[in-house]
Specification:
- The chain has one domain.
- It is 65% helix and 1% strand.
- It is flat, with a radius of gyration of 24 Å.
- The C terminus is likely disordered.
Length: 275
């Protein structure tokens, strides 16, 4: 294990400010199964309906969110252990493990966003042809960006759109997604506390004032501290949870309506058969 055990008193100052998963857990774990939802869809003549599959996507999003939540907790836990419990403090270890879990939390939040976007596609029965105008064939673009742009343009008054756009437009979510994207596709962002860091750039500077080339030595300034990473990853998680709750509540209501309609229809059929 990369750290020692912490007791409840170590966590006291963080508990009240930490993201709460209880409401989304309650929502997602009690959604009707795709098997149950497939029955009323068939009765409505939609045996190929993707609506029931949305419940699988939302479960995937919740499980991935749980992993991001755990990673965020471990950033804090390693900070407590190596900077407050260890004697002498070990800043390098706190930073090393903090960076590891920050990368994990940001990546899992990105993944949870992709699962949520796919769930929305299934829930609203959005076809590939509907999303095609919002895909840029020449660039990497996430499913969540495609779905967000589609909702923003095509379903401006839909209740799900407001929740999704609020997340997409938040500076904390954008910062977290940028951090994840750079970590995957570019040089990972540099972090303070791990010694000299170098950006991927040519070290020689151009001649100036008639002088020769200058070697820009001594490393480069780190972009982030662990505290700065937490300052946008944690609120991004709060905002994602709020959006997820709004989407899951809409789906739950729609699913219950499907089931109720089927129950009513089945009741009528039974009454007719008994005449």
């Amino acid at each position: 294990m990369s750290r020692g055990m912490l007791d409840d008193s170590d966590w006291e100052q963080y508990v009240q400010e930490f993201p709460d998963l209880s409401k989304i857990d309650e929502l997602v774990t009690k959604l009707p199964s795709p098997d149950i939802l497939s029955i009323p869809c068939l009765d409505k003549g939609s045996y190929r309906s993707h609506f029931p599959v949305a419940s699988v996507c939302f479960n995937d999003a919740y499980e991935t969110l749980w992993g991001a939540h755990y990673a965020l907790a471990e950033i804090i836990a390693h900070d407590i252990w190596y900077l407050r419990k260890k004697d002498p403090p070990n800043e390098a270890a706190a930073t090393l493990f903090g960076r590891f879990y920050a990368e994990d939390a940001a990546s899992r939040l990105y993944s949870a966003g992709e699962h949520l976007a796919n769930g929305i596609i299934m829930m609203l029965e959005i076809g590939d042809e509907d999303l095609m105008p919002y895909k840029d064939k020449g660039k990497r673009i996430s499913q969540q960006s495609i779905v967000g742009n589609y909702l923003r343009k095509e379903k401006t008054s839909h209740p799900v759109t407001e929740a999704v756009i609020k997340l997409a437009d938040s500076k904390e979510w954008q910062a977290t997604m940028t951090y994840r994207n750079r970590w995957v596709h570019e040089q990972p962002p540099t972090v303070k506390g791990l010694g000299i860091v170098y950006k991927r750039r040519i070290r020689w500077g151009p001649p100036s004032a008639g002088k020769g080339y200058t070697l820009r030595g001594g490393g480069d300034k780190p972009e982030y501290s662990i505290d700065e990473l937490v300052k946008f990853i944690k609120p991004a998680m709060f905002k994602f949870i709020d959006t997820f709750i709004s989407v899951a509540e809409y789906y739950k209501s729609a699913a219950e309506s499907y089931i109720q309609s089927w129950n009513d229809m089945a009741s009528v059929k039974i009454q007719l058969s008994q005449r």
